[in-house]
Amino acid sequence: MKDKIYQKRDLKVHWKSDLCIHSGNCVRGLKEVFDPKRRPWIDLERAERDQIIAQVKKCPSGALSYTLEEVTGTVLADEENSIQVMALPNGPLQIDATCLVTLANGESVTRKNKSFYCRCGASSNKPFCDGSHKKVGFTD
Q: How far, in Å, CA of 27 to CA of 73, rounded?
């Protein structure tokens, strides 16, 4: 699915629904901005820029991200790379690192910061988690 962009002056919030694992962190953390019952479900006019940025940074899947028009330049790689992998209880495998993932069809996609991978086998977006583990009652 295409990246949806919501803008307030120099702040752009990007939402990639195919990455979303529906943790609800955004809604619980800043419900005046993130309301899945409203259309559009993100309304940046309801909070200050710094509040929105802080909440977007808490998105565990990376489905929400932001850019600032005033910020330009080159992103430099860290001198040292590290990766943290953990299985979330009754849920997906979480990788805390930017990863280049090669899919079964040969396509490569980059997942920034964090990514979540299906362990239950029910995801319709394999290898990535789509939250299906909740529907099928997956336990580990």
A: 31
Q: How far apart are the first and last CA of the chain?
A: 30
Q: Say if pTM beats, i.e. exceeds, 0.90.
A: no
State the CATH architecture for 84-136: 3-Layer(aba) Sandwich (3.40)
Query: Do the Cβ atoms of 26 and 38 come closer than 8 Å?
Result: no
Range(s) within the chain of domains with CATH label 3.40.5: 84-136
Beta-strand (E) ranges in 37-98? 64-68, 84-87, 93-96
Which one, of 66, 67, 56, 65, lies nearest residue 25 by Cα?
A: 56
Residues of the chain with CATH 3.30.70.20: 4-68
b (16+ CB within 10 A) / e for 111-128: beebbbbbbbebbebeeb
Model confidence over 93-122: pLDDT tens digits? Answer: 888 888 878 777 878 788 887 888 999 999
